[in-house]
Design a protein that fits this description.
The protein is an alpha+beta fold and 71 residues long. It is 35% helix and 34% strand. It has a 3-stranded antiparallel β-sheet. It starts with a helix and ends in a 6-residue tail after the last strand.
Length: 71
């Protein structure tokens, strides 16, 4: 429905194809379930948690391994 999955896919493809990244992450605030669902649609899984800005924000770290540009 929205543009977020399409934009996320484009960003992931760009990171792999142009930067040669083999892994990408998204830091998503716990309360932001919509963004978490988008990350999951993009094949990302929770890899950990951390707190940012002097502990003010708790975020989940979503990540995914990327295939090579030729795959």
């Amino acid at each position: 429905r929205g543009y977020a999955p399409e934009a996320g896919r484009a960003a992931i493809d760009w990171a792999r194809d142009e930067l040669g990244a083999d892994h990408v992450i998204s830091l998503i605030e716990d309360a932001n379930e919509r963004s978490a669902r988008v990350a999951e649609k993009l094949g990302m899984r929770v890899e950990g948690r951390t707190r940012l800005v002097n502990g003010k924000y708790e975020v989940r770290i979503f990540g995914t391994d990327l295939g090579s540009p030729d795959s």
